[in-house]
Design brief:
The protein is an alpha/beta fold. The chain has 7 helices and 6 strands. Helix 5 links the parallel strand 4 and strand 5 (about 175-180).
């Protein structure tokens, strides 16, 4: 797949780039995408939720009423989960939600996500650039030049660039990542995938 490289003004340059069919042109595997997105979201969960059970509630251990003769059910503790103010029955405990996923499956999922973007013509290749200082205004102007202000954009840089990253940080509909940290969730969550020219080589090297 061949794409024209555009400059920061949004105009096509004389240069073009060929995207590898092994990365951007495979038959997408929906289940691999599902598993990788599930793995990503599960790994982001803190798992620090905790509810007190009856043994952790502060209160008297005295038996509430006598065992027999009241006409009601037996009751032994004010801390029972069936009473107001008692502990929670089978409440949440701190746990780790992450699970293992094979590297080959993750790689297949990213290739599948990139192939979906390529099939939908939602990939744009941008020439390498930099900002002199971190300014949100400069990033908004760049998105305006690319006519992407009304879309969710994932910008993939070839290497870490603090000025570009900090310029995009306040924008809800834009995210900047490096090519070596690209993940399936971010690709599928974006409406438009903007690849910096130098990022393509890194992506193809990582996924091949």
């Amino acid at each position: 797949m061949e794409l024209k490289i555009v400059d920061t003004k949004g105009k096509a340059t004389s240069k073009s780039v060929t995207l590898s069919d092994e990365v951007f042109g495979i038959e997408p595997n929906d289940h691999a995408i599902y598993m990788d997105v599930k793995h990503y979201l599960a790994s982001r969960r803190q798992g620090t939720h905790k509810a007190k059970e009856r043994s952790e509630i502060a209160g008297s251990t005295r038996k509430i009423k006598k065992q027999k003769g009241t006409g009601g059910a037996r009751a032994g503790s004010v801390k029972s989960g069936t009473r107001v103010g008692g502990g929670r029955i089978f409440g949440p405990r701190p746990r780790n939600y992450s699970f293992k996923l094979n590297t080959k499956l993750k790689r297949l999922a990213r290739k599948s996500a990139l192939s979906y973007k390529a099939q939908g013509e939602n990939i744009m290749v941008l020439e390498d650039f930099n900002f002199d200082t971190p300014k949100t205004k400069d990033f908004v102007a760049l998105m305006g030049n690319l006519k992407l202000n009304d879309q969710k954009v994932l910008l993939v840089m070839g290497a870490k660039n603090d000025n570009v990253f900090l310029s995009s940080r306040n924008l809800q509909r834009a995210k900047v990542v490096t090519a070596d940290s690209l993940n399936t969730y971010d690709i599928m969550n974006a409406g438009k995938l903007v690849l910096a020219e130098s990022s393509i080589e890194v992506i193809e090297k990582v996924l091949n």
